Amino acid sequence: MFSSLAKLGRYRALIQTLVVRDLKARYRGSVLGFFWSFFNPALLLFIYTFVFTKVLPSSHPASMEPFALFMFCGILPWTWFSSSLLESSNTLIAGGNLIKKVLFPAEVLPIVTVLANMVHFFLGLPILAAFVLYYQRPIDPVELLWLPVIVLVQLILTTGLAFFLSALTVHFRDLKDLLGNILTLWFFATPIIYSVDMAPADMRWWLNINPMTHLMRSYQEVLFFEGSFDHRGWLLALGVGSVVVFLAGYFVFDRLRDSFAEEV
Amino acid sequence: MKPAIDVVNVSKVYRRYARRRQFATLKSALLDGSLLGDLKPDETFQALKNVSFQVPKGCTYGVIGSNGSGKSTLLKCVAGITRPTEGEVNVDGRISALIELGAGFHPEISGRENIFINGIMLGLSKKEVQRRFDEIVEFAEMQDFIDAPVKTYSSGMYMRLGFAVAIHVDPEVLLVDEVLAVGDQGFTHKCLDKFSDFRRRNKSILLVTHSLDLVEKFCDEAHWLDKGGSKGEGDPKKVVAAYVMNVEDSEEHSLAKAEAARLAASASETPQAPPPDVDGESAPENPVDDGETARDGFKATEGRWGTREIEITNVSISGPDGESGHVFQSGDDLKVHMTMTANEPITDFVFGLGLFNADGVCVYGTNTNLEEFQPSEIAGEASVTFEIDSLDLVEGTYRLDLAAHKADGYPYDYHRLLYTFRIKSKIRDVGIYRPAHRWTFGGGIKIQRT
Predict the structure, then answer these.
(1) How far are the Cα atoms of B256, B361, B428, B450 from residue B441, in angstroms, in the given order?
(2) Using 50, 70 and 90 to split pLDDT, how confident is the model at B291?
(3) Distance (Å) from the C-alpha of residue B249 to the closest C-alpha of chain A?
């Protein structure tokens, strides 16, 4: 397993090309092209702003203003997470031609999916930054240095899960549909449109065993809440857990690898 | 010297799951607790059995065999796409596998970008692709379309581009699976030239194909696979000849089986079926059927009818060796032998025969009346033999009408298109009939038979 893990480095050029291909192909033929990557999150932010200032102004405590910005801090990384998982569950089947007909390292496919979605996440960040500036949120530049760490933890965790899902979906096709529902449930079980403090005390324990809670809380503390980044302990612990998930995911993937060419 | 490809006792077993598995899902697997049980195969299919061979460097090695004989599985094992269940495959040097051309092309982006992506997928660096780019485009004859998205390409263009990229990876070992059918004649020649070029540079080619000509002309060695097992290896001419013999045998079997089934079906029909036609010629029974007859001359009208006052009890077709069979060489002498029984003595009778090709066209039809035989009597057991001295037909499948009827067409026993035989020919001429002929050349022509 570790020998094939070591090979991953050699696929850098391949991964890079495929990510670029993925991004290019996604908006090929649309008039605005890459701008959609900006517009989609921007439009989303406008919708949330409208709903939570005009329609449901009392859904949150006053200390959480601007609430749309708060939600945006969570929704942006969540979108990266959930679309990565949804797409990676299908990625080996969609790339079946490559696996069956060409000598092709299959693990590249889920990695490419996660990375391509990460690029979309990055393209959403300027929108977030613009609104942070617009609302003149107090941002501690030192805390911002944690942002790459948070992103890295999320990347490792997501890739590990993507390995699991892509490999298992080859054998259990309905995992794809199951996953859609699980992700919806997971979205509401994660403090994204509410904060951990708003949850009832007896729910906290449940929220704490959800790894996404700690990622979202980290984003929110760094980008939204004032005060120091107290959640860093949880984040680092999650980082260690993510590495375990990554290795376990890769292990499962590697074990099932030989079946792909026959089952896809 | 180390061989380029070394295949040692390779077996490949595919797992097959029973029907229920297709409907089984993760959910049901979890509910039944049968997760592990479901992952176990219910039956297995052995695609390759103990295949061994070596391909020395610089050798072009052909693999032949009928469909399902394991050729492609073998190629995939050599390419490393699937792992053999048992045995070992060692390949020395970079492999490029032309198994499916253009696998991995993305339809939305341009040919130019796809060349880069495909090249990198096949193991080149970006710089290496850059260096070969012009050559690839030129080889694929795609100069004008290289910046158009691949989805706008014709299938020929798509394949040409895929081939061009794969071949310019410059592998030590090239695996080719039946891909030469991709282009027009010109392109095929170009591919063959490229293969020859490979050979000169001491690189190895493993070629899987149904084109026996190609194997004979092009390969240094050949390997015949049958139902996953090795049937023979060595000189391409000998291996191909052995394979062709075997194919004829199995065609013989399948034709005999089909014929038995047809006879069984027609025997159970009621005797007085459609109206007969007089001379066993191909006049359609029913004008409405005409279109169908033209499309599939065999299907529309086969069958058996008549009063059985004279009953044709057995028919055999035999070739020069005198043995009854179904596959003959063009130019063989051929005997059609009928045995029949007349329960009462009969004085008005005609024997007829019609020969049809696969398009339903009557190649030849005749009967004893047309050839001015005057019947006197038939009684009890009798036999009729129709003998053709030289069956000058082009390659194809043919069917026979055989009949005994009255001079006015009243049928005793009419067998319509019930007997099939196949003609094989070394010469690929076309048409329905091969007149005896010769070529003569004079003056400034230099020409000779290969």
Answers:
(1) 44, 34, 21, 16
(2) very low
(3) 33
